[in-house]
Amino acid sequence: MLLAAVCALFAQARAADISIIIDDVGYDHPLGLMAAELPGSVTLAFLPDTPFAVPLARLAYRNGKQIMLHLPMQSLEPHPLGPGGLTLDMTRDEIRRTLLADLASLPHVAGINNHMGSLLTQNAGDMAWLMHDIGRIGGLFFVDSLTTPRSAALEEARRAGIPSAARDIFLDDVHDDPAYVDRQLDKALAIARVRGSAIVIGHPYATTLAVLRRRIPQLAAEGVKLVTVSALIHDRKGHLMHARAGIVSESLREPDTRP
User: Fold this and answer.
1) In this model, does residue 102 exceed pLDDT 60?
2) Which parts pass through the membrane (predicted)?
């Protein structure tokens, strides 16, 4: 009886929050539908001005999902950004106008994270311009996707007073291997149990979505609660022990090969 009570208390102490963001939604309708119909409080990040972004965002919102703008930013590699991208050669006014147009293209946007951006996010000046404009809009949070360990985005977001955080794990750099996605999710759960919360990013791949459909209903039994990104950021603000000290998150660079 005593051992059981101790185990129960230990399990309760390890209870933690996790936020799951599905990036790059908007191009593929069937996979976007699968993402919008995932169980629980998953957050979907939509690329601006993509063919299916608006109807999928509306459906996902009706299904209780939080909606983000997945803001394209220039990469170290010469990959095309697609519509609504930010580049180093833009003026401050061009950055502002592009941001506003991207936000206007999507309904129900609660926050922003970067698509690619391994070049642009290293530039503190551009990030300061961007975060100033996001802060002036008000009511939005920002997640640094950390496509480079040299990113200045999170620091500038915090300097601008924007509720913000950085991702901890990419689920599917190897996106056709369910065992790999499972292992990455297990790493995220371990981070959440140690630190109290974790942010993971996946993409609308069939393998990733299948793993999440299977694993999300099991999270509560594993002592982890799936929450929206805004709820996780709000909780981190009130708990300094959730800061990045104490555990080193993976800083793998995203391949920057998403559509």
Assistant:
1) yes
2) none
The residues pairing with 86 across neighbouring beta strands, listed in sequence order, are 73
- The pLDDT of residue 239 is 52
Residue whose pair of structure tokens reads 């106008």 in the numeric block: 97
Using an 8 Å Cβ cutoff, are 115 and 201 in contact? no
pLDDT at 236: 84
Return d(Cα 92, Cα 214) in angstroms, integer.
45
User: Can you tell me whether residue 10 is helix, strand or coil?
Assistant: helix
- Residue 144, CA distances (Å) to 10, 56, 167, 180 in order: 32, 23, 6, 23
Q: Residue type at 70?
A: H
Span 52-78, average pLDDT: 97
Residues of the chain above pLDDT 90, percent: 83
Mean pLDDT of 40-60: 98
Which residue, 113, 128, 155, is CA-closest to 25? 113
Looking at residue 238, its pLDDT comes to 63
Q: What is the pTM of this model?
A: 0.87
DSSP 91-121: -HHHHHHHHHHHHHTSSSEEEEEEEE-TTGG
pLDDT of 164 over the 90 cut: yes
| CATH superfamily membership of 12-242 | Glycoside hydrolase/deacetylase (3.20.20.370)
- The domains of the chain are located at 12-242
Q: Encoding tokens for residue 175?
A: 């996106």
Q: What φ, ψ does residue 95 adopt, rounded to 5°?
A: -60, -45
Q: Are 35 and 63 contacting, i.e. CB atoms less than 8 angstroms apart?
A: no
> What does the block give as tokens for 248?
């080193």
Cα 35-40-45 angle, rounded to 5 deg: 40
